[in-house]
UniProtKB/TrEMBL annotation:
Gene3D superfamilies: Anti-sigma factor, zinc-finger domain (1.10.10.1320), Jelly Rolls (2.60.120.10). This is ChrR family anti-sigma-E factor. SUPFAM superfamilies: RmlC-like cupins. Signal peptide: none annotated. It comes from Marinobacter qingdaonensis. Residues 103-194 form the ChrR-like cupin domain. It comes from the Bacteria. InterPro entries: Anti-sigma_ChrR (IPR012807), Anti_sigma_zinc_sf (IPR041916), ChrR-like_cupin_dom (IPR025979), RmlC-like_jellyroll (IPR014710), RmlC_Cupin_sf (IPR011051).
Amino acid sequence: MTRHHPDSLSLMEYSAGNLSEPHALCIRLHLDECPQCRSRVDTLDSLGAVMMEQQPKVTVSDSIFDAILSKIDSAPSEADLPSMAASAAAKLGPLQKLLGEDINKLPWKRQLGDVSVLDISDRFPGQREQVVLQKLAAGGKAPAHTHRGEETTIVLQGAFADQKGVFNQWDFVVLTDQDEHKPVAVGCEDCITLSVLSAPVKLTGTFTRMLNPFIR
């Protein structure tokens, strides 16, 4: 069961389609496994639909209307849906739609100590944020650090703990430059997270802080 959720403003922005693609991905992954937040977004979507109905009517040209009908006609039929759903279900792992393979088999790069990373920012062309997968070895510790900007993270596998508590699979957390933590992977498997960063982290350990000029 997820215990850490996106805040109301983030869910509203998601429902309105105002989030960047990486941030929307983090929330979408959380929603897939969290009935509570999914219900809240469904309510927001319904409210948005009611508000749209109250907007002044806009005249649509015949050419645009025909184009819309054409797209509807080309949409998958109901008979196609079972096979499509089966194909999607066969893909294991929360990021396979994006990465195409199991997250444990990705070309991870060792960063510091027990931490390995994979920068996937190039999968989101035109986005300013840095998007990274991070793997903390089972029982391992990440270096103490804070943030130069905002970091949005969702736990994809395993769990980690810091001074704020324990974050399990599908838990959602947002950290700012006011937060300093030293995550520890708990449990018997590696902890893998997906993070969206507006700026690089800042190491705060006695020795690791000397590496800050090399962090991008």
